[in-house]
């Protein structure tokens, strides 16, 4: 039963519950019009303490396409946060006005604190370098729709695997499906944190390999998941400048890739995928952004427990 629940971590939902959301997301993607009144009379609040394009707009578009309405802020200084209000008091207040809240925050764990004080479902829309569970739902729906399965895949994750919260969430989620393997492509300085390797990969006997060059492994991949170097999480600008262009995927690097490999990226992109790659049929990152809206429509319906059409 998903009605009234929070989504703070990709592991909060069972595999069956995720499947329920993905199945509904797939149904919505095929006929969104059919759901245009599902959330009439309901209000979604978006509390964004950090910048966003896809997550905020896709949540807002999702609620509007479901016939509901949206309130919120994208700039915390325009709310009483600027006067020093705590996240606990903010969510208690928002819960008086809205039926469901989406929170992005630079501090790891902030949405969890909000959930502790909230009478309405709270969705984590990204907390610091920690987790981004609705990006994971987006990635799962994209992979399921385009590859036809979530198991038996070789997944290459490339770029900033240290600070990239989407990568941390995706490893957790894909580790729950059978026979998936990970190839972790990053400079030494930006490797996946040890706690994820230990507590997720090693603990579950998941096969993984750490390498530094895309060209050495690209022919093995079913999915290449590119990520941006997360400038906002670096303590040292010089270190960021040194590492920011570690990977630039271009047509020459795709030479040996499988014909049916898919290229994903949570976006925004900076330099890590050359614009020429956008024309390659394997480039699916803008399609991925669209699946993000459909899966968020499904998530809102499930957490509100409104009638499906
Ligand atoms: N993928 C993602 O979270 O994008 P935004 O930062 O634009 O929301």
From TrEMBL:
Keyword check for Transferase: yes
Binding site for carbamoyl phosphate: 54-55, 104, 132, 135, 267-268
Enzyme class: transferase
Start and end residues of each Aspartate/ornithine carbamoyltransferase carbamoyl-P binding domain: 5-144
Residues in Aspartate/ornithine carbamoyltransferase Asp/Orn-binding domain copies: 152-301
EC number(s) per entry: 2.1.3.2
Keywords, alphabetical: Pyrimidine biosynthesis, Transferase
PROSITE patterns linked: CARBAMOYLTRANSFERASE
GO biological process, one term: 'de novo' pyrimidine nucleobase biosynthetic process
Coiled-coil boundaries: none
Catalyzed reactions per annotation: carbamoyl phosphate + L-aspartate = N-carbamoyl-L-aspartate + phosphate + H(+)
Metabolic or biological pathway: Pyrimidine metabolism; UMP biosynthesis via de novo pathway; (S)-dihydroorotate from bicarbonate: step 2/3
Keyword Transferase: yes
Residues given in the record as L-aspartate binding sites: 83, 165, 228
Molecular function, one GO term: aspartate carbamoyltransferase activity
Pfam family, one: OTCace_N
Quaternary structure and partners: Heterododecamer (2C3:3R2) of six catalytic PyrB chains organized as two trimers (C3), and six regulatory PyrI chains organized as three dimers (R2).
Purpose of the protein: Catalyzes the condensation of carbamoyl phosphate and aspartate to form carbamoyl aspartate and inorganic phosphate, the committed step in the de novo pyrimidine nucleotide biosynthesis pathway.
Family: Belongs to the aspartate/ornithine carbamoyltransferase superfamily. ATCase family.
Name this protein carries in UniProt: Aspartate carbamoyltransferase
Originating species: Caloramator fervidus
């Amino acid at each position: 039963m998903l009605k009234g629940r929070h989504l703070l971590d990709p592991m909060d939902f069972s595999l069956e519950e995720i499947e329920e959301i993905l199945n509904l997301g797939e149904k919505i993607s095929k006929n969104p019009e059919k759901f245009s009144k599902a959330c009439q009379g309901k209000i979604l609040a978006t509390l964004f303490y950090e910048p966003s394009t896809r997550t905020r707009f896709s949540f807002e578009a999702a609620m509007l396409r479901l016939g509901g309405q949206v309130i919120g802020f994208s700039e915390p200084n325009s709310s009483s946060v600027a006067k020093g209000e705590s996240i606990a008091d903010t969510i208690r207040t928002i819960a008086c006005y809205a039926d469901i809240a989406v929170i992005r925050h630079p501090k790891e764990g902030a949405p969890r604190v909000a959930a502790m004080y909230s009478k309405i479902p709270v969705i984590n829309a990204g907390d610091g370098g920690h987790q981004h569970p609705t990006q994971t739902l987006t990635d799962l729906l994209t992979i399921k729709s385009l590859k036809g399965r979530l198991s038996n895949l070789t997944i290459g994750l490339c770029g900033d695997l240290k600070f990239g919260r989407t990568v941390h969430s995706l490893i957790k989620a894909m580790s729950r499906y059978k026979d998936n393997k990970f190839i972790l492509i990053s400079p030494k300085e930006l490797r996946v944190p040890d706690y994820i390797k230990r507590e997720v990969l090693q603990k579950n006997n998941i096969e993984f390999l750490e390498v530094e060059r895309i060209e050495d492994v690209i022919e093995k991949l079913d999915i290449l998941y590119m990520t941006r170097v997360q400038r906002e999480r670096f303590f040292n600008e010089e270190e960021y400048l040194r590492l920011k262009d570690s990977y630039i995927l271009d047509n020459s690097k795709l030479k040996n890739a499988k014909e049916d490999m898919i290229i994903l990226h949570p976006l925004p992109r900076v330099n890590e995928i050359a614009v020429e790659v956008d024309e390659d049929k394997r480039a699916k990152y803008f399609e991925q952004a669209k699946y993000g809206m459909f899966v968020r429509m499904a998530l809102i319906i499930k957490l509100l427990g409104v009638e499906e059409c």
